[in-house]
Known about the structure:
single chain, Jelly Rolls, 2 helices, binds calcium ion
Amino acid sequence: MKKNVIIALAAVAGAAGLANATLFFESEPNNTLLTADDVGSYDRPGDAFAVDGRLGGRGGDVDWYRFEVTEGATINAAVYGRPTSEDGDSLLGLFASDGSTITVDDDDNIGLYSSVEAIVPAGVYYLAVTGFGDDAFVGDHTETFGYKLVVGLNIPAPASLAGFGILGLAAARRRRA
Length: 177
Ligand SMILES: [Ca+2]
Ligand SMILES: [Ca+2]
Ligand SMILES: [Ca+2]
């Protein structure tokens, strides 16, 4: 089963044009910013990660994830229901390192699931997955569902790589001429 999950993730990452993707599994307790699961530091163009998580128990669960981008980035994060996106109603928030809200979404992804996008400077950020109605991200809801949180980080290419890209384009033009 795990192999299938990894293949599916590679397909998602491939479809999004992402070069690298790391899979994490949530670790409770992660119900506050201070106890967030650490899901890495990213600096390469096209970096990405995903998290297998669950809003468990009888509701009341909220899952916080901490990550860092060492360059400015466009963050695109989406919650997918597992095993399907038929059930469950997520709320997804992106927060700055001081806990201030950058953006929150309820239903922009499939069904009642959520997605957010933001352009941010280098720094530490938090994503939190919770259930519908928990606008304070403290676990005040009754949702229970499994999910995959998929995060793409469109980090600008370093100047050296951008240079190679221009040289490559010039070479292609010469070949066509
Ligand atoms: Ca959880
Ligand atoms: Ca939790
Ligand atoms: Ca929702």
